[in-house]
Amino acid sequence: MKATEIRELSIEEIGAKLEEVRDQYARMRLNHAVSGIESPATIKFTRRDIARLLTIMNEKTLQELNK
């Protein structure tokens, strides 16, 4: 998910998306530990998506507090 797409979402929507991506990440790690997955790089990309979501959510929260 690109940063521009995330910035268009509200804080609540970002929170919901973050929860969804974290669940997906946990399932990926478990599947990879048990049997391996086709592309282990997707784990890295998912982890980066989580960081991107958290960063933009914090930016939006700070903007709301500064208003």
The domain tally reads 1
Highest-level CATH class: Mainly Alpha
Morphology: elongated
**Mean pLDDT over the full residue set:** 94
Q: What's the helical proportion of residues? A: over 70%
Q: Please tell me the CATH architecture by its name.
A: Orthogonal Bundle
Uncertain stretches of 5 or more adjacent residues: none
N to C succession of SSEs: HHH
CATH fold-level label = Helix Hairpins
The DSSP helix count reads 3
The fraction of residues assigned to DSSP E strands is under 5%
Largest sheet: none
Distance between the termini: 28 Å
| Structural Rg | 14 Å
Number of strands: 0
Would you tell me the structural class of the helices and strands? mainly alpha
Overview of the structural elements:
With about 70 residues, the protein is mainly alpha-helical. It has a single domain, classed as Helix Hairpins (Orthogonal Bundle). The chain has three helices and no strands. Helix 2 packs antiparallel against helix 3. It is elongated and about 50 Å long.
